[in-house]
Amino acid sequence: MPLPSPPEEGLLIEVTANGICGSDRHFVSTDPTVPIVLGHEIVGTITAFGAGHSRRDAAGQPLREGGTVALFPWVPCLRCWGCRRFGPGATTCGNAFVYGVPPEAIGLEPLPQDSGAHTPTLTGGFGKHVVVRPGTYLWRVPDHVPARVASLLDPLAVAVRGVNIAKTPAGVPEEVLTFDATAVILGAGAVGLLTGLVLRHLGIGTIVVSGSRASRLDAARDIGMDVVLDTAELDVIQRREAVMELTGGLGADIVIDAANNAAALGEALGMVRRLGTVVEVGNIVPGNAGISVDPAVDVCQRNVRLLGMSFNPPRSYSEAMAMLSKHPGIPFERLITHAHTFDHLDRALADLAGDAVKVTLTA
Known about the structure:
Elements: E1 11-20, H1 22-27, E2 41-49, E3 68-71, E4 74-75, H2 81-86, E5 97-98, E6 129-132, E7 138-140, H3 147-150, H4 153-164, E8 182-186, H5 190-202, E9 206-211, H6 214-222, E10 227-230, H7 236-246, E11 252-257, H8 263-271, E12 272-280, H9 295-300, E13 305-308, H10 314-326, E14 336-340, H11 345-353, E15 358-362
Parallel strand pairs: 8-9, 8-11, 9-10, 11-12, 12-13, 14-15
Antiparallel strand pairs: 1-2, 1-6, 1-15, 2-3, 3-7, 4-5
Helix pairs in contact: 4-5, 4-10
């Protein structure tokens, strides 16, 4: 594809790192209505500004050619009902453009095949350049943050948002994010372990992580998770018993399901305490599997808060960038277990299907 000039008020960037998301493995096997370049965890260096660009990032920091930026992959339209009522959050916009994602795969309207506005172009981070559209939120990456670490911005923002929606006013009966709380994370992939790091940074008392792949369980231990449950060794009943024993029979204060498995939601509801909170973030891509839930026993009688989320507002990315750039002691880089150049995307996708935590493409 030809290398275009940057659009007015936009940018052209050369991609230096792009994380491989679990959803990419689903997207790569689909047939989108309009050809696109996949990859939405994008970090790159600015090669050119379009006319009229403010040369400032989302936090007001100055930008320059040759500087590194990380993108918020959603470009909200700012005109639809959701944008007008709720602001530029990801799932509130019904007409958003998303870098590197087929819109129909995430519940948005497909791009029209005959629209000149959607002529195939450099849309995602699996290519070596990206055309950054006007209205894109992006953040300057400080020089001390490696591009591969900055590519964690998107999944870290998911983790930040997953924890933030569980927050309540201090002292209310539903408060679960406390120093003496027990948190359980189902799924030891990148989002699950990043969620563990966010919870640890908040000072949550005890953090339990469950998963099956050896490298992910090792990473969970290395980054300081308190209890690691191997789902290959313990069945769902034994895992629930382990959580109950740990909590004196009460159950976990908060359970965050970051596993791409519908059954995990049922497991989460089974191990949360009365007035506890369950956050569902793992099952983003629709599947054919269902679960059996008794609303009375599983939710109402125990006053369980069940919160679902998919994507995030720019604020989550701003908070995530602050964690990446201002807290060098947090072991983010331990989660990047595999890296490949852009010429070996096939190997990167294969690694993600195997025993890996986070796989990243780097220049």
